[in-house]
Amino acid sequence: MSQRMLDSAFRRYGVDAVYAPPRGGAPVPCHVIFAQGDVLADGFNSSARISEVRASEVPTMKEEGTLTIGGKTYTIQAARQPDPDRLLWRLELR
């Protein structure tokens, strides 16, 4: 996926959020897109919330940091960069 396509998707579907690193540090405003949870073998969705954040907005994402969206705060359980160009963070939230 190109940076241009990614930026377009975030303008259209992204919502405002704030990332806060664990154990202090300056909060970082960003935009997130919520994705579907994984579909389990029995056809039900997992309970994990998945979100995606552009690496251009938050270059370093740490597990146990938090994402605040619309007044609700989620803890980052896992942070991965699944695309080969590392343009995107995929986060599992709890």
Task: Kindly describe this structure.
- The chain has 94 residues and is mainly β.
- The protein has one domain: Beta Barrel (Thrombin, subunit H).
- Helices cover 12% and strands 41% of the residues.
- The chain has 1 helix and 6 strands; from the N terminus they run αββββββ.
- Strands 1-2-3-6-5-4 form a 6-stranded antiparallel β-barrel.
- The longest helix is centred in the N-terminal third of the chain and has 11 residues, at 3-13.
- The mean pLDDT is 87.
- InterPro entries: Phage_tail_attach_FII (IPR008018).
- It holds the Pfam family Phage_attach.
Please write out the topology.
Elements: H1 3-13, E1 15-20, E2 28-35, E3 49-54, E4 66-69, E5 72-80, E6 88-93
Antiparallel strand pairs: 1-2, 1-4, 2-3, 3-6, 4-5, 5-6
Question: In summary, what is this structure?
Answer:
This protein is mainly β. The chain has 1 helix and 6 strands. It has one helix spanning 3-13, and strands at 15-20, 28-35, 49-54, 66-69, 72-80, 88-93.
Assembly status: single chain
Radius of gyration: 13 Å
Helical amount: 10-25%
Query: SSE string, helix = H, strand = E?
Result: HEEEEEE
| Count of domains | 1
CATH class membership: Mainly Beta
Tell me the CATH topology: Thrombin, subunit H
Q: In percent terms, what proportion of residues is strand?
A: 35-45%
Instruction: Give the mean pLDDT.
Output: 87
Low-confidence segments, ≥5 residues, pLDDT <50? none
Kindly, what is the distance between the CA atoms of the first and last residues, rounded to a whole number of angstroms? 27 Å
Query: What is the strand arrangement across the widest sheet?
Result: 1-2-3-6-5-4
Largest sheet: 6 strands, antiparallel, barrel
